[in-house]
Specification:
Elements lengths: L2 H12 L4 E4 L9 H10 L2 E3 L10 E3 L8 H13 L11 H12 L2 E6 L6 H10 L6 E3 L4 H9 L7 E5 L2 H10 L4 E4 L18 E2 L3 H14 L3
Parallel strand pairs: 1-4, 1-6, 4-5, 6-7, 7-8
Antiparallel strand pairs: 2-3
Helix pairs in contact: 4-8, 6-7
The structure holds magnesium ion (MG).
The site of magnesium ion (MG) has 7 residues, from loops.
């Protein structure tokens, strides 16, 4: 992370504006579809019959599943070149821009990836016009959100993510947060583990914007 981006994150933690914390993969950038295309280009396929990568990647020619070790190296290989494959999710940029303007909100991206991929992903976000600061961490997302809001328990926080485990982490660490479940690759959503209680499913970005507007209105913003 550059010093400038570190300073932007520090400023977010001092702010008392509404905070929108937004996951990247499957929320701002497509992940499942481009990862499938990446695997295809290597003669493999991801079968989305259950919600996991391990055990679901097959060699196309033989129909044999690959070992877990190979799954990890495909994922690592994908992140090394993800900027050549991943595209923005429909209406993400327009909607985030509108949320920021309408609600005078702070927006931050929180992505669960090794920090060594930060620069490549930062450049990809910038290329598509997503200029908001980004935190790349493998730590629990709840800890990261709590660090941004710690001394302001009344600060409105909305958290948008596709994975139940991340919602659980954030709801435990920041109990008043609005949890929104958004997932670009719809066919996989029915295979997810159940969402924690209190998380709202939204089909697309306009629905997320509506839920955030309702939440903020109820909190006097
Ligand atoms: Mg995600």
């Amino acid at each position: 992370m550059t010093p400038a981006e570190c300073e932007r994150i520090a400023a977010l933690a001092r702010s008392d504006r509404p905070l929108i914390v937004c996951d990247i993969d499957e929320v701002v950038l497509e992940f499942v579809a481009p990862f499938m295309a990446f695997l295809e280009s290597h003669g493999h396929e991801l079968r989305t019959t259950s919600f996991r990568l391990k055990g679901n990647i097959y060699i196309k020619e033989t129909g044999q599943p690959v070992e877990n070790e190979a799954v990890s190296s495909f994922l690592e290989g994908f992140f090394d070149v993800h900027d050549a494959w991943q595209k923005p999710v429909d209406e993400a940029l327009e909607t985030l821009t509108e949320i920021e303007r309408t609600h005078d909100a702070d927006i931050v991206f929180l992505t669960a990836m090794p920090p060594r991929h930060h620069a490549r992903r930062r450049a990809l976000l910038d290329l598509h016009g997503f200029s908001h600061p980004m935190i790349a961490t493998e730590d629990a997302k709840g800890d990261a959100v709590a660090a941004l809001t710690g001394d302001r328990p009344d600060r409105p926080v909305a958290f948008i993510d596709d994975l139940p485990s991340n919602h659980l982490s954030v709801l435990s660490a920041v109990p008043g947060a609005l949890g929104l479940h958004l997932m670009a690759y719809k066919a996989l959503a029915p295979h997810l583990p159940p969402m924690p209680e209190g998380v709202t499913n939204v089909d697309d970005w306009p629905a997320a914007a509506k839920a955030i507007a309702d939440y903020l209105a109820a909190r006097g913003h």
